[in-house]
Design a protein that fits this description.
By secondary structure, the protein is mainly alpha-helical. It contains two helices and two strands, in the order αββα.
Amino acid sequence: MQTINKVELTDSELEALYAERQNAKRKQAEEKRDSYESLRHQVVTDSVKYAVDMYETMKTAHGNIMSNMLGFRELMNEFGDLPKNSQGGFSILNKEGNLKTILKIRKIGEFDERADLAEQHIRIS
């Protein structure tokens, strides 16, 4: 880069140099912003793709596991190994006893009008 003696330049030459400098700064800022936008797009795209792939894998695994566990529950019921007080859930260990799987079944209770009346009574009091 050559050195320029600013004292010897005319006003118009200084203004031209200043405009050139501002254009270079603006161009550099635009390139930096474009780079940022591109990286942001790539991060979002990769993250969402990874999450969707993970969701599909987990959905398939859940379906397979539930199918196996519900089938085994029927077999346990035939052998009388399903606990009497069970609401359909159970836990089993492997032969070595170091791995355990649990099937929990949540049954959503049904409420009748008495529950609604009780709730209204509690709110009034």
